[in-house]
Design a protein that fits this description.
Elements: E1 30-34, E2 40-44, E3 49-53, E4 59-63, E5 66-70, E6 123-124, E7 127-128
Antiparallel strand pairs: 1-2, 2-3, 3-4, 4-5, 6-7
Amino acid sequence: MSPGGDLTVGVILQAVYSDAFPAPSDNPALHSTHYPDGAVVHYDFQAHTLSTTLPDGTSVTVAPGKVTSNAEDTECTGNLLVQKNLIVNGFVALNAGMNVQAGKEGRPAAVIKGSMHATVDVTAAGISLVTHPHSGVKKGDDESGGPK
């Protein structure tokens, strides 16, 4: 564009939106960056929301009070501290053991709703479920004593 036709004071317009090349959004609060590989970064300064989407569909959205990761796998390379409840809607695999502390106000450390399967043994108060002996074993209808 050159005011008055004088090319020495002209400027180059980098983009003029049209039907053939529409604007990425009609939302004036949305700042978008589109990359040649198809990745997109959006920031909506009215909604205070930042989102990033990669060409394969993997995305991360940061909104007030919530972070959403939409990926096949999410990896945390350091410790992860959860201050409130951890809700898992799928299978959990703990590959290095676990340590569960007693609940608040005398509540149990763990509650299992359903069956539990142990491949080796279960120990409670030092007594093995698999190898513990019983005292006072008698034949017939008598009951044995408790486990030792």
